[in-house]
Specification:
The protein has helices at 30-43, 58-67, 95-109, 128-140, 154-163, 184-191, 233-250, 254-263, 278-285, 294-303, 316-319, and strands at residues 3-5, 8-10, 15-16, 47-49, 75-80, 82-83, 90-91, 116-119, 147-150, 168-172, 194-198, 269-271. Strands 3-4-5-8-9-10-11-12 form an eight-stranded parallel beta sheet. Strands 1-2 form a two-stranded antiparallel ribbon. Strands 6-7 form a two-stranded antiparallel ribbon. Helices cover 36% and strands 13% of the residues. The radius of gyration is 19 Å and the shape is globular. The chain has a single domain, classed as NADP-dependent oxidoreductase domain (TIM Barrel), CATH 3.20.20.100. Helix 2 (58-67) links the parallel strand 4 and strand 5. The protein is an alpha/beta fold and 330 residues long. InterPro entries: AKR (IPR020471), Aldo-Keto_reductase (IPR050791), NAD(P)_OxRdtase_dom_sf (IPR036812), NADP_OxRdtase_dom (IPR023210). One of its GO terms (molecular function) is oxidoreductase activity. Keywords: Oxidoreductase.
Length: 330
């Protein structure tokens, strides 16, 4: 069942660690986060994915506090490049910035080695060779094991890989977000690069739990996303309801069906759903325990896809930071 990333065998379902610090409403308490991470390792999760931006370092700090004594039990990935410091807001993948960021992340994570370190976004201001060169230096120094990129286009992935082989590409991939199928899916397969899917259950939308996004907390990121808007949500909810029925008929949960679909798209694909609830984390980890028939996966894909959903995956301000190929008139 295991799959390879950066030369390491891990469970195909990893744990996205953004939710404990940022983005989807009020984060859990520190104690609850520590319990969550330890329970994850107890269950068998061995791929934890975080970033310096998540809670401005809070996610990394929590991982360090929670499981530093269990460091050998998991593959650790983090990211850099997005700046959210007031007027400095933007993207910075300059060698100087990334080198300092690695040191800062190591300190917060309370470790001397990060297995995989991503450039979180493409920085058009910095030559690719310079950015990759800085990460190669960190690899040579033993501070990181490998590098990856997040939300980069196929062309830029190829350019970076030619400078020094990358281990992973992380991007959004789910039933309702298919941008990787415009090139990245094939590119990563061809170059033997792991494809790590974030938001594989569509930011929780297709789990059958959320019915009214207007009731989300004010600071919940989804309130600003077009697919959850008052205009688009009723249409998307109708799709979700049919999807929930399909999962129930198959004898698994909607989240498990969504994860099975993503993982089925290629043997180099990993998924990193995030959650703050132990029961959801358990459900996600066991998503592959009861494989469904291929026709069920096909029906799921025909029901929810880029053509059937309403609204773009990102609001305009975020869309402008994405290098990944996009659909025309999306």
């Amino acid at each position: 069942m295991k799959r390879t990333i950066a030369g390491t065998q891990v469970h195909p379902i990893g744990l996205g660690c953004m939710n404990v610090a940022w983005a989807y409403g009020s984060p859990p308490s520190e104690d609850d986060s520590i319990k969550l991470f330890n329970k994850a390792l107890d269950l068998g999760y061995n791929h934890l994915d975080t970033a310096n931006i998540y809670g401005k370092g809070k996610s990394e700090e929590l991982i360090g506090k929670a499981v530093k004594s269990r460091r050998k039990e998991f593959f650790l990935a983090s990211k850099t490049g997005i700046i959210v410091d007031g007027p400095k807001r933007g993207i910075d993948c300059s060698p100087k910035a990334m080198t300092q960021s690695i040191e800062d992340s190591l300190k917060r994570l309370q470790t001397d080695h990060i297995d995989l370190f991503y450039m979180h976004r493409f920085d058009p201001k910095v030559p690719i060779a310079e950015s990759v060169g800085a990460l190669k230096d960190a690899i040579d120094a033993g501070k990181i094991g490998a590098y990856g990129v997040s939300e980069w286009s196929s062309d830029h992935i190829r350019q970076a890989h030619a400078v020094y082989p990358m281990a992973a590409v992380q991007t959004e991939y789910s039933l309702w977000t298919r941008n990787v199928e415009l090139g990245i899916l094939d590119t990563t397969k061809e170059l033997d690069i792991a494809l790590v899917a974030f938001s594989p259950v569509a930011r929780g939308a297709i789990c059958g739990i959320m019915t009214d996004p207007s009731k989300l907390e004010e600071k919940d990121l989804r309130r600003s996303h077009p697919r959850f808007s008052e205009e688009n949500w009723p249409h998307n909810l109708a799709l979700v309801e049919k999807f929930v029925d399909l999962a129930q008929q198959a004898g698994i949960t909607p989240a498990q069906l969504a994860l099975q679909w993503v993982i089925s798209r290629g043997d180099h694909i990993h998924a990193i759903p995030g959650t703050t609830k132990i029961e959801h984390m358990e459900d996600n980890f066991h998503a592959l325990d009861r494989p469904v028939d291929a026709d069920v996966l096909q029906r799921a894909g025909e029901l929810i896809n880029q053509q059937t959903v309403s609204g773009h995956r990102y609001p305009e301000v975020m869309r402008n930071t994405i290098d990944t190929e996009d659909f025309v008139n999306a």
